[in-house]
Write a structure and sequence with these properties.
By secondary structure, the protein is an alpha/beta fold. The chain has helices at about 15-20, 80-95, 100-105, 120-130, 155-165, 180-185, 215-220, and strands at about 1-5, 25-30, 40-45, 50-55, 140, 165-170, 190. It has one domain (about 1-235). The protein is built from seven helices and seven strands. The termini are close together. This is WbqC-like protein.
Length: about 240
């Protein structure tokens, strides 16, 4: 069984969904420290002026703490961020071939007004995976698992062991800190992602690959998964 453990993010890029597509079980690593300038609450979309950030505002209290876990981060709902984000998506993707096909499903997330960041980003990511046609992957939150122990590699190993993983699929940057011997001794095969994707038709040239999955979905619709992973490599 192949397991991926990854921090939840806001409307992630296609590499994130590549990992979801290859996983039997995908664990949202939501009880580790919130990284203030990461991808937990922001991502980029395409516009005529170039890539534009969409950032969900979070409450400052507690965010500066080095120990605040992601799942305890609250959305600052005193702003009209949701309306601005949806308006930005409508403005920049209304002419995309498949925007109308997904608009009603996605707009619901911008009306939901959850208190916690992960109560928006996790359900939205799962919904996007299903819209892409990824139906086999089971999703869990690390914050809902019990009996975990250790830090860094030991904690990852605790999750993998509890789930009965035989393979762990990791992003390439983990090579710098992952203690590979510990996984090997536990009988868990380690695989690293390789991100290499074809271009696809986009509005507002030139092509930009480092944008939210929404760009690919709105532009290619039911063919989007073909631009992420070869179907023969996707678990059934």
């Amino acid at each position: 069984m192949r397991v991926v453990i990854l921090q939840p993010s806001y409307i992630p890029w296609r590499g994130y969904f590549h990992q979801i597509a290859l996983a039997d079980v995908f664990v949202f690593y939501d009880d580790v420290k919130y990284d203030k300038n990461g991808w937990r609450n922001r991502n980029r979309i395409k516009t005529p002026q170039g890539p534009q950030w969409l950032t969900i505002p979070v409450l400052n209290k507690g965010v500066e703490s080095q120990h605040t876990p992601i799942h305890e981060i609250r959305i600052n709902d005193q702003t009209d961020w949701a309306k601005k984000h949806w308006n930005a998506l409508q403005t920049n993707y209304a002419r995309a071939p498949f925007f109308d096909a997904y608009a009603s499903q996605l707009s619901a997330f911008y009306l939901s007004r959850p208190t916690y960041l992960t109560d928006l980003t996790i359900p939205q990511t799962v919904a996007l995976a299903r819209l892409l046609g990824i139906t086999h992957t089971r999703f869990l939150r690390s914050s809902q698992l019990t009996g975990l122990s250790g830090v860094k590699t030991d904690r990852l190993l605790s999750i993998l062991t509890q789930l009965g993983a035989t393979h762990y699929l990791s992003g390439p940057s983990a090579r710098d800190y992952l203690e590979e011997d510990k996984l090997r001794q536990a009988g868990i095969a380690l695989e690293y992602m390789q991100y290499s994707y074809p271009s696809y038709p986009q509005l507002y040239p030139p092509f930009e690959g480092q944008v939210s999955i929404l760009d690919l979905l709105f532009m290619t619709g039911p063919d989007a998964l073909d631009y992420i992973v070869e179907q023969k490599d996707t678990p059934k």
